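User: tokens in, sequence out, please.
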């Protein structure tokens, strides 16, 4: 007697997910598939608008570094108030990453993609008209909220709309525009200072970003919502329409999109509307640890090596006057700082370029592990500088600085961002990626407050040894809790 196949099982096995349709490759008449699925114009539009947001993030953050000395002088801001200014931006990023980033799981990727840019533009305009310390802190907090929301949202709007085989390089390429924006912001700050060497120059700096940012905001209204998100929310008809709009191409394929409905879809375990605490449920805890703990440890090292930055920049571009005696001295210092920022950003770009090229070939986990080990080597090399004097000391610090910056951008700086937006199920992807970004920024805050105290209390070399240990710990945790997402469908990662 022959077994008869269960029709329901056959139907379930042939049903495709949104990602299956996105990953579908065209076939030649002889039955040969193309090696990858070509990107559609809508997919490229989504990618470009997300990359533009990353560009503005780097543009404004690095420009703020050039503008703040002028603002501080104009408003008479003291050292304690400068601490509040730094804290305002970081606190805004924390709130934006966890709060607004998580809202994309409830209100949609597209809606929050637009909202974050509206918030960014609004506070950018208000910043130009600031007249005192309080208004400055409020505006920087608002900008931080927008930037924090962008961490998870920009990643998801790309990764849920593109083929699995190119997800790593495209997400990281967009992330790399943050470094390009930083270089652009530094260049604009330098140019404005050269043309308009007055205290009011900082207002012109921020003003250059307003019209381009508004154009990007308008462009975001004309993209499709993530069909993956619509599907997990049970809006199957809307998901099919969004997928069709996303995949318009000539000649058209896939020719028909039909997604699973009801119990057929819920069997995958992704359709539940889950709360923040789902991140710590047994099925998601591994992903939560992998996404957040290495990011925290990476930020400790990244901000920690900043203790050497003044020494490096002074050697490269000349020392600043010890005492600012006039506006001319202030602007000279600012120009030197802009040149130094350009040097740092160039190192960041080199590492990101290698990360883009290797993420889909070597894999995220290996790059993160190797990157953490390389960071430890760079920090260890920098610690040897305490045994030297003069130019040798500076050369050793500079070598350690270069190695660290290259390896962190090849590895943990790029890969923690990439993994955080991939390892969670679609229903909580925004919340998970936002939580990971916020935990990373807690590491930045801890560094800002604790490291000056530790530097005075235990000295440079022991502090660097601590950072070496945290980098090695980052490699170990990455390996122990590894979830390799290279080339894997988001549907499978979620399971």
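Assistant: Sequence out:
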């Amino acid at each position: 007697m022959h077994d008869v196949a269960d029709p329901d099982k056959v139907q379930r096995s042939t049903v495709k997910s949104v990602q299956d349709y996105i990953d579908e490759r065209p076939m030649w008449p002889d039955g040969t598939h193309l090696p990858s699925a070509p990107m559609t114009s809508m997919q490229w539009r989504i990618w470009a608008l997300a990359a533009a947001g990353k560009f503005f993030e780097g543009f404004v953050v690095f420009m703020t570094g050039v503008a703040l000395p002028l603002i501080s002088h104009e408003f008479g801001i003291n050292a304690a108030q400068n601490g509040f200014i730094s804290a305002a931006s970081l606190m805004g990023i924390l709130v934006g990453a966890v709060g607004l980033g998580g809202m994309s799981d409830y209100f949609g990727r597209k809606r929050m993609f637009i909202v974050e840019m509206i918030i960014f533009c609004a506070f950018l305009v208000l910043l130009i008209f600031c007249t005192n310390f309080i208004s400055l802190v409020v505006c920087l907090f608002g900008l931080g909220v927008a930037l924090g929301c962008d961490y998870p949202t920009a990643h998801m709007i790309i990764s849920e709309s593109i083929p699995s085989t190119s997800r790593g390089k495209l997400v990281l390429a967009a992330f790399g525009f943050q470094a390009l924006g930083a270089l652009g912001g530094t260049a604009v700050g330098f140019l404005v200072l050269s043309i308009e060497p007055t205290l009011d120059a900082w207002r012109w700096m921020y003003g250059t970003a307003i019209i381009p940012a508004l154009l990007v905001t308008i462009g975001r209204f004309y993209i499709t919502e993530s069909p993956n998100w619509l599907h997990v929310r049970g809006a199957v008809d809307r998901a099919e329409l969004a997928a069709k709009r996303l995949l318009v191409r000539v000649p058209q394929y896939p020719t028909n999109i039909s997604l699973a409905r009801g119990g057929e879809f819920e069997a995958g375990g992704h359709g539940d509307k889950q709360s923040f605490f789902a991140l710590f449920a047994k099925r998601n805890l591994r992903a939560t640890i992998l996404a957040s703990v290495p990011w925290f440890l990476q930020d400790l090292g990244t901000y920690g090596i900043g203790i050497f930055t003044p020494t490096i920049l002074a050697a490269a571009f000349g020392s600043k006057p010890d005492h600012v005696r006039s506006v001319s001295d202030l602007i000279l210092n600012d120009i030197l700082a802009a040149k130094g920022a350009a040097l740092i950003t160039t190192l960041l770009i080199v590492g990101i370029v290698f990360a883009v090229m290797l993420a889909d070939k070597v894999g995220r986990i290996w790059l993160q592990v190797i990157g953490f080990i390389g960071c430890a080597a760079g920090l260890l090399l920098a610690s040897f500088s305490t045994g030297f004097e003069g130019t040798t000391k500076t050369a050793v610090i500079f070598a350690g600085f270069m190695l660290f910056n290259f390896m962190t951008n090849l590895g943990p700086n790029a890969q923690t961002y990439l993994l955080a937006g991939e390892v969670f199920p679609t229903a909580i992807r925004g919340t998970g990626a936002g939580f990971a970004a916020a935990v990373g920024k807690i590491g930045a805050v801890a560094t800002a407050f604790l490291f000056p105290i530790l530097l005075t209390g235990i000295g440079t070399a022991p502090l660097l040894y601590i950072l070496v240990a945290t980098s090695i710990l980052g490699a170990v945790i990455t390996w122990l809790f590894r979830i390799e997402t290279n080339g894997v469908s988001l549907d499978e990662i979620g399971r």
